[in-house]
Write a structure and sequence with these properties.
Structural class of chain B: mainly alpha
CATH architecture of the largest domain in chain A: 6 Propeller
Strand order of the largest sheet of chain B: 4-3-5
Largest sheet of chain A: 6 strands, mixed
Strand content of chain A: 35-45%
Number of domains of chain A: 2
CATH class of the largest domain in chain A: Mainly Beta
Distance between the termini of chain A: 60 Å
Oligomer: heterodimer
């Protein structure tokens, strides 16, 4: 009997292997930088304020700004389904939707709401993700950002940055400056510092609790570190000459700063308590704008050692210096993505300053913006978006986001504020 | 070896015998034999072309009056007769000679004619042979030319095949060729493979697959309408969930896939293995 079973098994194996060999193989290389069409229906409100149902516009804004999604116009769609069982899949397919977000808001207590939501896969015809958040009425935007983060992570594999904060400097009344903190999309602005003197180069600590910045309040640039929660601050660097361009190490224990202590601008390392100051690169040329690699082993910076400004990197273990940018004569302001694979910088291209992205594996360069006077690009903490300053045809200066596929540029809704020097805070766990 | 020698000796003997016979015959012809029993009379003879004298002699024989004269005449007659006889003999000999000469001449002529004919024949044969040779040569040339043409055709086909193989190496599939292999038109097969490849590729959102060189593999089964029979089965993951999902969506989104109406071709394409390299290959 056993022998018989063995023969059958062997026969089955032979048959299955022959079937495998008979398969035609099609190789598919590459693809497209396309956007996922997604429909976000207005959330149904049960006892809650009506306008709260507009949470869908927050989610649509978030997903659209990422450049990876294409929020569909659902105004013509009559009724929003309550669950995947009520979804007319052929209708959504005809709208070319790949995903659908539906939800409801229940008033559970006075000024407290519960938001329930579902992400439905139109092709698979099933709910792939769902969740609930409870919060206050005035937290509806934050809840919307959290839903966006979850959807983004489920569909892209990367953490969403829609619940993060940004910092930026606002110039007002001509000679006054504010260091502001806001939601990533420019809402919920709070002021961390108000100064009569210019403020530049705000940088978030890796834990998101502090901000280092350069202030001119001592009639020369000096570096402060300020706690966001308490507003307490301390002077980190007030050395002879200029103190500027702070950059936090990934572990948050040190900063790279730029001093004109001995000669011209040079990079130094300093502990967060102001101790152990040492010069990083020994060079007669200018070395400035330091930025750490995510593993903390290298520092990328701008130098004119080759003539025009170019980006170099310094290995902290071997003290080796190597040039990184070769395309274009004028490259500056480097920063690295969280995985260290992409380098972001500002490049001068045909007389215009544009935001450029270099793949450090292939060294391919993609210009994300068209200029003409873009400034200060910084990565979102997931590396999928960039915050930068652009001038609206010389009239006003705005801060905007650009997706790293270059498909979506979106100015933050900051009205007529004169804004500059943006910095993107980390993702809070 | 011995046998050949013997054969050669026989041939030699036959040749000698033949030569002797011919010689004998020649001698006979030259020194002809008189077949009369009487000894021939020898005398001087005048040779004329014609013989009118004979009539005169006949007249004198008719005169009986003069005996002496007759005797004399008889003698004369006898000698004349002998003379005539000799003359006749001679004439006969001459005639024979002439006849023989004529015969010889005729023979010679015949021989010459035969030779001529033979020559003619030979020439004709030669001409035929030449023609045949020419024809053969022509045929050979034509065959050669045909062979060259065939060779060229083969070479062209081989070149095309090589080119198509190269193209196939560059592309997963290509269109246009019509080679039939195992009852399946590979040109058509490749055309549909290319169409399927293009349709799916357009829907792969590579942004969801990071930056590394990754590979994913799926197996799909298709209905003749181009719709999927069941869900795509992932046999190799990219280890990036969003990428795996994006590629699966691309396959589903590509429905209906372009498929041939021919059942033989469809049977080749109804089960497919799809290999994806969203960020290209190293």
């Amino acid at each position: 009997m056993n022998k018989f079973l063995h023969i059958i098994f062997a026969g089955f194996l032979f048959f299955s292997s022959s079937v495998i060999h008979a398969l035609e193989v099609i190789e598919i290389l590459g693809g497209k930088a396309s956007q996922i069409p997604i429909a976000v229906m207005p959330f149904k409100s049960f006892g809650a304020q009506k306008d709260i149902g507009k949470i869908n516009s927050v989610i649509k804004g978030d997903l659209g700004r990422s450049g990876l999604f294409y929020p569909l116009d659902t105004r013509g769609v009559a009724a929003s389904p309550n669950s995947d069982k009520e979804v007319n899949f052929s209708q959504w397919k005809s709208l070319e939707a790949q995903f659908l977000i539906i939800g409801r808001i229940d008033s559970i207590q006075k000024e407290q709401i519960k938001v329930s939501w579902s992400l439905i896969d139109i092709y698979k015809q099933q709910t792939v993700l769902s969740g609930e958040y409870v919060g206050k009425n005035n937290q509806i935007r934050a809840i919307g950002h959290k839903v966006s983060d979850k959807v983004y992570e489920r569909l892209t594999g990367s953490k969403g940055v829609f619940h993060t904060k940004i910092a930026f400097v606002e110039k007002y009344n001509n000679q006054k400056f504010k260091l502001n903190i806001a939601d990533y999309d420019g809402y919920n602005i709070t002021t961390l510092l108000d100064s009569k003197m210019p403020i530049i180069s705000p940088r978030w600590s890796p834990d998101g609790k502090k901000i280092a910045y350069v202030s001119f309040e001592k009639e020369k640039p000096v570096i402060y570190i300020q706690e966001i929660a308490t507003g307490k601050r301390k002077l980190l660097a007030n050395f002879k000459g200029n103190n500027s361009a702070p950059a936090w190490s990934p572990d948050g224990k040190r900063l790279a700063i730029v001093l004109t202590y001995s000669t011209n601008s040079q990079i130094y390392l300093i502990n967060t308590d102001g101790s152990d100051v040492k010069r990083l690169v020994r060079s007669r040329s200018i070395t400035t704008e330091p930025s750490w690699s995510p593993d903390g082993k290298e520092i990328y910076y701008t130098s004119n050692q080759g003539g025009g400004p170019q980006i170099y990197k310094f290995n902290l273990e071997s003290s080796e210096v190597s040039r990184v940018t070769f395309e274009g004569k004028y490259n500056l302001y480097p920063s690295l993505s969280y995985d260290g694979k992409l380098l972001l910088y500002l490049t001068q291209d045909q007389g215009k300053f544009k935001v450029a992205l270099q793949n450090l594996q292939s060294n391919q360069v993609l210009k994300l913006t068209k200029g003409p006077l873009d400034e200060a690009p910084v990565f979102a903490p997931n590396g999928h978006m960039v915050l930068f300053v652009y001038k609206n045809y010389g009239k006003t200066t705005k801060i905007g986001t650009v997706s790293i596929n270059g498909l979506k540029i979106d100015p933050l809704p900051l009205g007529s504020r004169q804004v500059q020097e943006p910095a993107w805070g980390p993702i809070k766990n | 070896m011995k046998f050949i020698k013997l054969e050669n000796n026989d041939e030699l003997q036959a040749n000698l015998f033949s030569f002797a016979i011919h010689l004998a015959l020649f001698l006979v012809m030259i020194f002809s034999v008189g077949w009369q029993t009487k000894t021939p009379y020898y005398g001087e003879v005048e040779l004329w072309d014609s013989v009118p004298v004979q009539k005169k002699i006949n007249k004198t024989q008719a005169t009986p009056k003069k005996k002496i004269k007759q005797k004399q005449n008889t003698k004369v007659q006898k000698s004349a007769e002998a003379k005539a006889k000799a003359k006749a003999q001679k004439e006969a000999d001459i005639k024979l000679k002439k006849k023989k000469a004529a015969e010889k001449k005729a023979k010679k002529l015949k021989k010459q004619k035969a030779i001529k004919e033979l020559k003619k024949k030979v020439l004709k044969q030669e001409k035929i042979d030449k023609l045949k040779k020419e024809m053969l040569e022509k045929e050979k040339v034509e065959r050669l030319q045909q062979q060259i043409i065939e060779q060229q055709k083969i070479e062209k086909m081989q070149a095309e095949l090589r080119e198509s193989e190269l193209k196939q190496q560059k592309k997963p599939a290509l269109e246009g060729e019509d080679e039939v292999k195992g009852g399946v038109n590979t040109g058509e097969l490749n055309k549909y493979k290319l169409l399927i490849q293009q349709k799916i590729q357009q829907n792969v959102n590579q942004q969801l697959c990071g930056l590394d060189y990754i590979t994913l593999e799926f197996r799909i089964s298709l209905m003749p309408t181009g719709e999927l029979l069941g869900q795509p089965k992932m046999t190799k993951s990219s280890k990036i969930k969003s990428c795996d999902d994006a590629v699966e969506r691309a396959i589903i989104q590509s429905q209906p896939l372009p498929l041939p109406k021919d059942s033989g071709l469809f049977s080749k394409l109804k089960n497919l293995e799809l290999k994806f390299h969203p960020n290209g290959v190293e």
